[in-house]
Amino acid sequence: MRGRCRALSHNGLRLWRRSFCTDNMDGLQSSKVKIFDRHLKRKQRDRAAWLMGPNDSLVDNVAENLLDRLEDCKKTFPMALCLGGSLEAIRRLLRGRGAIEKLVMMDMSHDMVKRCKDAEKFIPNDNIETSYMIADEEFLPIKESSLDLVISCLGLHWTNDLPGAMIQSRLALKPDGLFLAAILGGETLKELRIACTVAQMEREGGISPRISPLAQVRDAGNLLTRAGFSLPGVDVDEFTVRYKNAMELIEHLRAMGETNALLQRNKILKRETALATAAVYESMFAAEDGTIPATFQVIYMTGWREHSSHQKAKRRGSATVSFQDLQKQFGSGEAQ
Which residues lie below 8 Å from residue 98, measured CB to CB, with a gap of 6+? Predict the structure, then answer.
């Protein structure tokens, strides 16, 4: 695992990024049990379309990192689909990457699609024919083998059947088509989770889910493999954003459309519990300048629809040289 750290900014606040890369993934057991209230999530995204500012440093950095992967590809992607999440940031920051000719922007929120469409007039002419669609990522209304690229930035982690959504994306791709996605990982908002747990235990004598469950890094590679993608790749970024107080963090989450959408959520938050959460957050995590940190872990996934040009592992037993012969030729390999 490799890592790096650098400073960014978010609306005048300090934002740090730490990056990792891993290729060691364990198994994942998926379930078709309904976890998220998709109707509520649509409403939250409708609200976010009106709350979000013109630029969000966190979202823009995630979108840039995702789009950077297109620059690593020699091939072009004439027909592309952008799924939910940070649609406007992807469209604004695309800047000709991937040589896209036709782009479909899709979201289940009417207001989010409208916002993205309205922002189109502020984007310099890049000769991309853009169309818009209101649809749910869980039921992809796209013809099979019709796309060269499917890209999703901070949206798929709210689907109830993530493997199923990824399988639909693969089927929509042409052979040698590319799937790119960024989702929030399990370390996201770990400080808020701790503060909520402590405050609820103190004030209510128990805990209820206030923050949605998210995929772990070890799950991502297996998700790509189970969805049938070839040449899967996974890497991780960690962003730490500093806020003036807990209320500013909550307002930012609302503007991102990232607030709680669990079906089994407690719909009532007592005022004293909310105040206690903010107090615990500050007492446990505040810096000397009074700001509080919030961690956002972003998992990037890359996969291709299978094609004859892709490298494949040799079948078991096809080796022509044994390890014993190599050891005899090059020595034991022990440090001298």
Answer: 67, 70, 73, 76, 77, 80, 149
